[in-house]
Amino acid sequence: MPETTVFISHTTRDKRDYALAHKLADALKAQGQSVWIAPDSIPAGESWQEHIISGVMDQCTHFLVILSAGSVHAEWVLEEIRLAIERHNTEPNFKILSLPMSNNLPDFAGKDVLDTLQWIPYHEDFRVQLQAINEALRLRPTIKTIFPPGKTDDFVGREYVFKAIDSFLGANDRGYFVIEGDPGAGKSALLAEFVQQRDCIAHFNIHGQGINKAHHFLESICKQLIIKFGLPYTTLPTGATKDGHFLGILLQEVSKQVNAKSPLIIAVDALDEVDLDGHPEGANILFLPPYLAQHVFFVMTKRDISLPFSTHTPFELYDLNEHQSETLQDVRLYLNKAIHRDNIQVWLETSQTTQDELIDNIAKKSQGNFMYLRYVLPEIEKGHYDLNSLPIGLEQYYEDHWRRMGMTTKPLP
Q1: 46, 60, 296, 324: which could join 5 in a potential S-S bond, CB 3.0 to 4.6 Å?
Q2: Which secondary structure element, helix H or strand E, spans residue 325, and what is its range?
């Protein structure tokens, strides 16, 4: 038996019950969970009574029953409840979860036992309902956003960028917001923080891990959309990751569930790292749709390079290089936090340097580059730099680093 198998008990007498049960089953399957539900789990030509009994008593780890005015009078729903209670009495780890569709249900056989167990509240919003069931079942989604290593550590500032994103979202009913910046400008960390704050769907292109092809993006985003919005797909259709057609279908379907106050936001990092080898001529990078459905937005990052992308929806390019003063303020925020590391405090004491002197020097020489900070601060902690020998800018840091590694020797060692 899989680690988690959910038996969904429901009645076919009530169309709403039946539709909800199968929508939940499809969503759980899309998450990679095993589900037992009639009639899908009963082989053709075999005894459905025997399979239901086996399903409750032997094949599941969790019993989820949809309770409604119809189901509490359905003979086999009541029998399934009886079987689940019988098993629960001998197997305390066997979980029974009730999902009442109403607060005014009549009495039924087994209600006294179910009343002693925590129920799952009913929600009209399917996304909220699925989340409540996931939490009750303690299920872990099988599609997880892979963040670039270390990019979510010690994040500070960038409020001005978040305000610009919110302004774009508020001024348009759909569109692309693209953040552009130099290497090391903190684009990935910025987007990772945005994703965590907004809990939005996201994909990070990571060249070093080989996650940088269009099919990686399409598979990840399509699965996330199906799971989050409970779309009726248990697997991706054949060819779903070959072009943007299926993604476009999903975006149209999701647009019916979102609104201006709660739009769909998809975050995509590092467009410049996408492998375009073999990409069809004339197609947008990652097969991004040129037209977007209402209340659908993409927030993306890239370096200042030309990429195959055209759109007929609202578009804004936000250049971080045009916000150097705000960036330097964030650099100082980062340094004010980092300055309290034990090894830096020791360095300050031995070098007889004040905190303000160190912050002023690093902030100026960093040229607003966060990658510079992530590299130089550990070198200071190791004693490789004094106040006067700090490199100016990321490029000079690299040159100094290679020199100390002996990589400038001719011929190389």
Answers
A1: 60
A2: helix 324-338
The string of DSSP codes covering 76-143 is HHHHHHHHHHHHHHH-TTSEEEEEES-S-PPP-TTHHHHTTSPBPPP-SSHHHHHHHHHHHHT---S-
Using DSSP, state whether 406 is helix, strand or coil.
coil
- E strands of 270-396, at which residues? 296-302, 315-319
- Single-letter amino acid code for the residue at 204: F
pLDDT in tens, 148-178: 666 566 787 889 999 999 999 999 999 999 9
3-state secondary structure of 42: coil
- Mean pLDDT comparison of 119-123, 171-175, 325-329, highest-scoring range: 171-175
Residue found by looking up tokens 């769909």 in the block:
264
Task: Determine how β-strand 296-302 pairs with β-strand 175-180.
Answer: parallel
Cis peptide leading into residue 141 (ω within 30°): no
Per DSSP, the residues of 374-399 read HHHHHHHHTT---TTT--SHHHHHHH
Question: Quick one: DSSP state of residue 333?
Answer: H
CB within 8 Å of 393: residues ≥ 6 apart: 365, 366, 367, 369, 372
Q: Where are the beta strands (DSSP E) in 235-346?
A: 264-269, 296-302, 315-319
Residue with tokens 């996330």: 224
Cα 273 to the center of its chain, rounded Å: 19
Give, in degrees to the nearest 5, the angle at Cα 339 between 335 and 344.
Answer: 130
* DSSP for residue 244: S
Whether residue 411 is preceded by a cis peptide bond, meaning omega within 30 degrees of 0, is: yes
Task: Give the residue from 234, 254, 241, 250 showing the smallest Cα distance to 30.
Answer: 234
Number of helices followed by number of strands (H, E) in the chain: 14, 9
Higher pLDDT pick, 2 / 346: 346
At 104, the amino acid letter reads N
* Mode of pairing for the β-strands spanning 95-100 and 34-36: unpaired
Kind and range of the H or E element at 7? strand 5-9
- Nearby residues of 68 by Cβ (< 8 Å), 6 or more positions away: 11, 14, 16, 17, 100, 101, 102, 105
Give the CA-trace dihedral at 408, 409, 412, 413, to 10 degrees: -120
